[in-house]
Amino acid sequence: MSDCRRQWNREDELPVYLAGPISTGPNQRKSFGMFSSVEGAFESKTIDFDNYAVGRKGSRTPRSGSRERVLDAEGGAERSAGRRGHRNPERLLIKGGRVVNDDQSFFADVYIEDGLIKQVGENLVVPGGVKVIEVNGHMVIPGGIDVNTCLMKPYLGTNPVDDFLQGTKAALAGGTTMIIDHVTPQPGDSLLDAFECWQEAADKKACCDYSLHVDIPQWNETVKDELELLVHEKGINSFQVYMAYKDVYQMSDSELYEAFSFLKQLGAVVLVHAENGDLIAQEQRKILGMGITGPEGHPLSRPEELEAEAVFRAITLGNRVNCPVYITKVMSKSAADTITQARRKGSVVFGEPITASLATDGSHYWSKNWAKAAAYVTSPPLSPDPTTPDHLHTLLACGDLQVVGSAHCTYSTSQKAIGKDDFTLIPEGTNGVEERMGFVWDKAVAMGKMDENQFVAVTSTNAAKIFNLYPRKGRIAVGSDADIVIWDPNSVKTISAKNQQSASEYNIFEGLECRGGPVLVLSQGQVVYEEGKLQVQQGTGRFIPRKHFPDHAYQRVMFRNQGKEAVTRGMYDGPVYDVVPTPKYITPAPSAKSSPTSHQPPPIRNLHQSNFSLSGAQTDDNVPRRSGHRIVGPPGGRSNITSLG
Amino acid sequence: MMSERRCSQEDDCSSLLSRLGSDSPRPRMKYGGMFCSVEGAFENKTLNFESFSPQTQRRRAARTHSDHYDGGDVLRVGGQTVVFPSGHTRENYKSSTQTIPVSPSPTIMTIIKRNGDRLIIKGGKVVNDDQSFYADVYVEDGTIKQIGENLIVPSGVKTVDAYGQLVIPGGVDANTNLLTPQKGLNPTDDFYQGTRAALSGGTTTIMDHVLVEPGTSLLSAFDQWRETAEQRACCDFCLHLDVTRWHEGLYEELETLVKDKGVNSFLFFMTFKDKYQSSDSQLYEAFGVLRDLGAIAQVHAENGDIIDEEQKKLLCLGITGPEGHVLSHPEEVETEAVYRAITIAKQANCPLYVTKVMSKSAADVIAKARKKGIVVYGEPITAGLATDGSHYWSKDWATAAAFVMSPPINPDPSTPLYLTSLLACGDLQVTSSAHASFSTAQKAVGKDDFTLIPEGTNGIEERMSVVWDRAVSTGKMDENEFVAVTSTNAAKLFNIYPRKGRIAVGSDADVVIWNPKETQTVSAKTHNLTLEVNILEGLEFRGVPSVVISGGRVVLEDGKLNVTEGSGRFVPRKAFPDMVYKRIRARSKMAEARGVPRGNYDGPVHDVISMTKSIPPTPTTRGPPCPKTQTCLRNLHQSGFTLAGAQVDDHIPRRSTQRIVAPPGGRSNITSLS
C-alpha cells in the first residue's frame, strides 16, 4: 500500500491528495490514445482511498481499537489471540474472477492477507504457499451488508429464535458478510445499557462483522446525553425513531422535530419506522370490534396509506430540519413513490425495501393456515398488491431506493401464537437475511432490470456509504476488508425451511425458486462458506464502529445549512391596538398534542403597551365598530414609517 | 298541528305525482328531425327541478303551505323562510313564527319591504354552471318566479336592464370570519361591514366560521353567532362550526346541530398547537362521527407541531418581523397536513374539505387524491389567487403584516396562476375569501413577535372579480365554470343547492348582473370595508357586478350600495349533501372487511413469562386523554398449555426451546392445512 503511494508520488510529482480522481489542471491529463487504457491502470486497480478521503483519515484506528477492546473485554485474550493466530496466516489468492464493484467490473485476481485485500490486479506477485481459489470467471463481489436485522429484539420476554449466532450463520450462507442490528431498548431503559448488552451478546456469538443501530424508544433530555456518548465514543451513527406503536415507542411530530434536530447536530443518520400510529391504533380497535382477530387483521389495520402518509411526514420533517432521513422497511408502492418524488425535489432521503417486500406479497395474510398467515406478520405489513415486488425492484434498479435490508426478526410459531386470539399481540417479524441477496439477483438482475454493478450497490456499497463503512466494506479494493463473495449467477435453489440456516420453522419464501447464489463466502479473509457448507466460529464477528457525518448523507445537508435573514426595517411606531385582557382569551388548556418538553406560548409580550392606549377598556369595546379601532390621529403625531413602501 | 297534517297530505300527493313524471316509461316524443329542438324548449328554459329530484320532493308541499298563509304580513315572513329545504321547513316555520312576536319590529319591516320588490331582469344572458342562455328573469317575493322570453308579468314591475351583461347566481363565499376573535381581538369587519362588502362584490351568501373556544359549548357559540348575524348581516348566511377540542362528549351537540340547527360542516384545526390543534386520533374519531351524521369535515391543514418548533427557532434567530411568519409556515408543512388529512379522511370514509389551499404542492396533493377517487375538495382563496407572498419581506411593517394569514400566501409568484389552472380544470372546486380583517393597530400587537400578529386578510369584496380577471378573461375558464367555482359548487357541497347557486324557477332571488367589460382598481380608499389597508391595493381587475339583487331586493345599482342591516337570513343546511355523500354511502357498504374463517389455532403457544416487560400505557405522546387504545394482554388460553412453566434456558434463544415436536395431546393438523 505504501509502495503504491510512493510510486504515485514519483510518477506525478504531486502530493497524494492532489492525485485524486479529479485532475486539478488540464496539463495533468496524459492520454495514451483514445481507447487505450492509462498506463499502469491494471496494476493496482484501486485507488488508495484511505489517504484522501476527507474526514475518514482515522478509519484505520477504530479497527485496531475495537480489536483491543474485544481482547480486554473478553478476558480470554489467549483464546482470541489463538483464534486470530490460527486464522491470520491464511493467505488467499482468488484467481480468475471478475471483480464487480458498484462502479465497474473487471477481470482481476485478488490477493488477501491478514483479513485485508492487499492486491487487486493481474499477474500479482504473491508469496509462495498461498492458498489459491480458482473461480473460473465467476463474479467476485464485495460481501453483502444487511442493514436491518433484529436478532435480539425482545417481545414480551421472548427473544427471536435466530440469535446472533443463528442469524449471522444464515447471513453468511446467503452471502451477507456484515449485519447492522437494531438495539431495541424499552421505554425507560438506558440506551447505553442496552447498547452494551447487545454488543456483549454479539461479541460472543456473531460469526460475521456487525454494527449496531440504536432505537430511541422515547424522547427526553436524558436520551440526549446518551446519544452524544454513543455517537462520540461508541461508534454509532444511526438511530431509529418510531412514528408507530402508539403509547409505546411513538413520538409526536414535535418530538420528532427535536430528535431530528439533535441527531443532525451529532451527524447521525435518522432511521424512521414510518407508519401513522394514531390511525393504526384506531383501526386496530375497529377491526377487533368487528370480530376480526386473525392475522388478516394486521394488514387491514395497517393499510398502505398510513405508511405513505408517515413517509411523507417524515420527509417533510427531514426537509424542515435539513437532516438526512432513512426510511426503514419500504413495503408498499405508494410509500416508495413518495420517496421517489421527494428525491426528485431534492430531499436527502433514502429508502430501504426488505427481502420480504421484494420477494413476496401480503396475500398470505388471508391463508387458512393460521401459522402460515402469522408468519408474514411484520410492520409495515406486506402489501397485498401482488405487483408491489416488481415495482420496488424497478425503483431499486433506477436508484430511487438505495439499500436492501432484510428486517430479519424471526419468531417461532409458538411465539407467534401469543397472538392467536388477537392479531395485535402477534410478535412482528419475518425472515430474510439468508435470502436477501439471492432474491435481488433473481428478481432484478436475472430479469434484466438491474446490472451487476447496481446489484453490488444496493446489496452492499450504498449501505456502506450511507452508514460510513465505505470503503472498508462494500468494495473490493486494496485496503478493504476481505469480505468477499464468489457469486454464481446460474445456481438455482429452492427456498425451504428444511435446508435453511435460520432456526425458524417457517420460511415465508417456502417453495420459491431463486436463481443466483454464493458459491464461496469469505469473511475477514476466512473461507466461511463453500459449496453449501458453513465453517464458522462463534464470536469471530467484530463490532465495526462507524463515524458520524457520513459524507454520502451529510455533504448536501452541510451545504444547505444557510441561515435565514430577517428584514431590516425601521421600528413600527404606529398605533398599537391595546389588548384588553379580555376573558375571551382562555388560558391554554393542557395540550392535545403537546410533548412535555415544549412549553406554552409565552403570554403576550406587548412591550409598547404603555406607549399608547385607548385610555383603557372602552365601554363599547364589545361592539366591533369602526371608530373603535382606527386611530386617526395618534398622540405624538402620525408616523410615516408605515407608508414607506 | 293543522299545518303539519296538511303538509304531510300534500306531500304524499306531490311525491306521487312527481314520480309519475319521472319514473313511468313513457314513449319519447320527437318533434321533427334530428336537430330540431323539443317543442317548448325555449319557453321555460329552466327545469322545474323541484318536482323530480327525490331529495326535494317535499318542497312543493312547503310552498303551497306557505301560499296558504299568503294573506297576512306577519305570516309572510314564515313563508319566506319556509320556501326550501324540506326537512327544515316546518321547524323553520315554527321557529320563525315563534320568534316573530319576540323579535323587534324592524326585522319584520325590512322583510316586508323586501318582499315588495318585484323585478324583471331583461335582456341578459343567464349563466348557470351547466349552460348559458338568453332569457328574462322575473323575481317576486324574494324568489325567482319565471325565466324565459316574453314573460307575462304584472304591471308596475321594476325593470332591471341587463343588456349585454351576464345574469349569474349570486356568489357564495364559503369561508369568512366576521366574528372570530383572535387573541382577544375582534375583526374590524363584523357581520354588517363584511356582508355589505360581500354584496358590493357580488357575493350574496356567506358561510361564516363559528369558532368555539375550547371548553365552551358548541350550541351556545352557534346561538351567539346566529343571533349576532341575524341582527347585523345584510345578506343570507350559513354557519360552519370550528371544533377546537374534540372529545366524544361532543357527539350529542353535533347531532343537535346537524339535525335541528342546519349545520352540516365542521372545521378542525391541525395547527395552532396547544390551542386548537387536534391530534390524528381525534380527527379520525371526529371524522367517523361526522360521516355517520352526514356532515362534511373541513380542516385547516398545517402541521402545528413543526410550525411551533420553527417559530421558536426563528424567534431565537432574531427574526421577529412578518417574514418570520412565512418562514415558519413553509409550504411543505401545509402539504404534509393536507396529505395527512386526506389519509385520515380516506380511512374514516368521510368527505373532506380543505380550507385555504395556498400552495401549489398542497393543491397537487388534493388533485392527486381526487384522481385516486378520494372524496376531497379544495378551496383556494382570494388572496392566494390574486397575489403572492413576496410582500412579507416588504420594508413597510404595516404592509408586510397585512398579509399575515395562515397558511401564508405563497412566496412563489407562479402560485396564483397554478391555482387558477387547477380551479379551471375542476381539481379545486370552490373559491372563498377567508376574510378576516384586522386593522394595522391590531396587527401591531405583534410588532415585536410575528407569532402574535392576528392572522387574516381581506378578500370578501374582491373574490368574484379576482376569479373573473385571473381565470375567465385570461381564457382559462368559461363563464359557466366561473359560476360553478364562485357559487354553484359551494351550494352543492354544503347542500343549499338549488336554493342558492342557480338561476332557476324557485331559487332564491340572489342574482348578480355581471359586467365582464368594466374594470375596477382595488384600493383601501374605495372599498367597502373598515379596514385601512387592502392587500390587493392598486391591482386592477376586469369584471365587476353592476347590479346585485339579494333576496329579491336590489342592493347594488349604479354603483350605489343600499343595504339593510339585519336583512340577512340564516340558511339552514341539511345533512347528507348528495354531491358529497352519494359516493361515501356506496363505499361504506362496500368497505366491510371480513375475517378469514379458520379453525382455532391449537398448536403450542409460547408462554409469556415476564409480563413486567409489557409497559403500562404511558401518557400518550400525541393523543389527548382519549379512549384507551389497547387493553392489557388478553391471553385467554394461557392456562391451556404451558411448557411446564419457565424453562431454565428460556433466555437462551435456542431452537430446541421453542419448537415443540410432539405437543401433549398429539399434533394438530390445523397448522398444516394449506
Automatic annotation (TrEMBL), chain A:
Annotated SUPFAM superfamilies: Composite domain of metallo-dependent hydrolases (SSF51338), Metallo-dependent hydrolases (SSF51556)
Keyword Protease among UniProt keywords: no
Polar residues composition-biased segments: 607-621
Biased composition, class Basic and acidic residues, residue ranges: 65-89
Cytoplasm as UniProt keyword: yes
Location of this chain's protein in the cell: Cytoplasm, Cytoskeleton, Microtubule organizing center, Centrosome; Cytoplasm, Cytoskeleton, Spindle; Perikaryon
Keywords: Cytoplasm, Cytoskeleton, Nitration, Phosphoprotein
Domain Amidohydrolase-related, chain residue ranges per copy: 140-528
Disordered: annotated segments: 54-89, 587-645
Classification via Pfam families: Amidohydro_1
Compositionally skewed regions (Low complexity) per UniProt: 587-598
Membership in a protein family: Belongs to the metallo-dependent hydrolases superfamily. Hydantoinase/dihydropyrimidinase family.
Complex and partners: Homotetramer, and heterotetramer with DPYSL2, DPYSL3, DPYSL4 or DPYSL5. Interacts with PLXNA1. Interacts with FLNA (via calponin-homology (CH) domain 1 and filamin repeat 24); the interaction alters FLNA ternary structure and thus promotes FLNA dissociation from F-actin.
Function: Necessary for signaling by class 3 semaphorins and subsequent remodeling of the cytoskeleton. Plays a role in axon guidance. During the axon guidance process, acts downstream of SEMA3A to promote FLNA dissociation from F-actin which results in the rearrangement of the actin cytoskeleton and the collapse of the growth cone. Involved in invasive growth and cell migration. May participate in cytokinesis.
Protein name: Dihydropyrimidinase-related protein 1
From TrEMBL, chain B:
GO molecular function: hydrolase activity, acting on carbon-nitrogen (but not peptide) bonds, in cyclic amides
Residues covered by the Amidohydrolase-related domain: 167-555
Location within or outside the cell: Cytoplasm
Domain of life: Eukaryota
This protein's UniProt keywords: Cytoplasm
Family annotation (CDD domains): D-HYD
Stored InterPro entries: Amidohydro-rel, Hydantoinase/dihydroPyrase, Metal-dep_hydrolase_composite, Metal_Hydrolase, Metallo-dep_Hydrolases_sf
Keyword Cytoplasm recorded: yes
GO-annotated cellular components: cytosol
Region: Disordered, residue numbers: 653-674
Family, per entry: Belongs to the metallo-dependent hydrolases superfamily. Hydantoinase/dihydropyrimidinase family.
Pfam families: Amidohydro_1 (PF01979)
Chief localization: cytoplasm
Protein name (record): Amidohydrolase-related domain-containing protein
